[in-house]
């Protein structure tokens, strides 16, 4: 086995769409969570965003160019007719030399993500360029039969991970179902509960970005949350990649534990309204509105109302292609407002359920660690 430049065994394809009638599905980088495609957006040829200019064939493998972004798509028969953002590179494995699933798993490996990230350049949003991609080596190329065997092992291990995720998803569905059973939803309010604008549930704060031209704004004082830390299956914010310094913290905007953070600006409308709970104090960027609950608002009740009422946040968007909800419109969205006692009772249910979910998440973390070890071994020639 030998290491070879990745572009010796795969082509970087940058074909745009031919003119078409009607609509096609468009996937921005924000519409990919790991290797899973979210809903995307229907676009016309003339009305599509400027970045909607990449098409792919079945078995092509796309990955996001952005630094610290593990988003990889293996194109299948369902998605080969779609349009993708130019924020992806599209790699086409050379037949009889490289198996497309083997390529997919290499692009998802910690080795590739490390090599990608250290070559990313740019003043604001760092990303991999074609010249940087040319420098990346595929560390070991066994024969095509061995590639298929390794890819099959990783596929099976990934399936185990996904089954653990489904258990967590079932708990999520239980929480949503219990909320609707008790309160209904704010869109139709079948139980005729009192309603109030979001601003009456607590203080609404829009995040910001301290000036990057001053590197001293960034350090290790407080996590700086982005929408990627919200757009996950977890009820709670995931750990941030970037942190602010003590100086940056004074310029930034923060929210305490118990706040709900909501994505209000995104490259795709489907991401608008995604929410997560803060279990520690955090800073956050301008794509996010935080609601810091008042003393009569149960934080878990408020968060779950965002889960159930995502469509209301999306309906307040002022940009049909990218998705953007201003603070003014956001804080006027009307939510259900049962009594504080009813809110707290539901909050207790949420706490008990997520406690079980925490144990499942710990089990899944162990599973993920095993998978990371497995994928690393695969590309060291140790399997």
UniProtKB/TrEMBL annotation:
The keyword DNA-binding applies. Residues 20-159, 196-354 form the Type I restriction modification DNA specificity domain. GO terms for biological process: DNA restriction-modification system. One of its GO terms (molecular function) is DNA binding. Pfam families: Methylase_S. Keywords: DNA-binding, Restriction system. The keyword DNA-binding applies. It comes from the Bacteria. PANTHER family: TYPE I RESTRICTION ENZYME MJAVIII SPECIFICITY SUBUNIT, TYPE-1 RESTRICTION ENZYME ECOKI SPECIFICITY PROTEIN. Belongs to the type-I restriction system S methylase family. This is Type I restriction enzyme, S subunit.
């Amino acid at each position: 086995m030998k290491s070879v430049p990745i572009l010796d065994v795969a082509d970087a394809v940058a074909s745009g769409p031919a003119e078409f009638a009607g609509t096609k599905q468009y996937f921005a980088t924000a519409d990919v969570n790991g290797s899973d495609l979210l809903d995307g957006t229907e676009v016309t040829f003339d009305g599509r965003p400027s970045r909607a200019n990449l098409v792919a064939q079945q078995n092509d493998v796309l990955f996001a160019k952005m630094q610290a972004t593990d988003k990889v798509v293996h194109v299948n028969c369902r998605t080969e007719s779609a349009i993708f953002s130019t924020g992806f590179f599209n790699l086409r494995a050379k037949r009889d030399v490289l198996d497309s699933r083997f390529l997919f798993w290499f692009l998802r490996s910690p080795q590739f993500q490390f090599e990608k990230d250290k070559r990313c350049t740019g003043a604001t949003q760092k990303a991999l360029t074609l010249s940087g991609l040319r420098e990346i080596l595929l560390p070991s190329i066994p024969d095509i039969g061995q590639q298929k065997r390794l890819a099959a092992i990783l596929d099976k291990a990934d399936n185990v991970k996904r089954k653990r995720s489904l258990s967590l998803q079932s708990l999520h569905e239980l929480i949503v179902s219990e909320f609707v059973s008790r309160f209904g939803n704010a869109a139709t309010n079948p139980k005729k509960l009192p309603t109030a604008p979001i601003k009456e549930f607590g203080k609404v704060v829009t995040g910001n970005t301290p000036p990057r031209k001053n590197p001293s704004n960034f350090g290790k004082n407080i996590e700086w949350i982005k929408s990627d830390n919200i757009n996950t299956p977890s009820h709670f914010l995931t750990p941030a990649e970037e942190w602010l310094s003590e100086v940056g913290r004074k310029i930034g905007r923060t929210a305490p534990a118990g706040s709900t953070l909501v994505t209000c600006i995104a490259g795709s409308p489907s991401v608008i309204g995604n929410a997560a709970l803060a279990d520690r104090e955090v800073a956050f960027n301008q794509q996010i509105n935080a609601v810091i609950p008042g003393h009569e608002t149960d934080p878990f009740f408020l968060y779950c109302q965002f889960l159930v009422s995502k469509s209301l946040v999306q309906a307040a968007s002022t940009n049909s292609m990218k998705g953007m909800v201003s603070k003014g419109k956001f804080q006027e969205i009307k939510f259900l407002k049962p009594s504080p006692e009813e809110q707290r009772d539901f909050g207790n249910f949420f706490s008990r359920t997520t406690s079980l979910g925490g144990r499942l998440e710990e089990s899944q973390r162990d599973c993920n660690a095993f998978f990371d070890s497995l994928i690393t071994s695969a590309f060291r020639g140790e399997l």
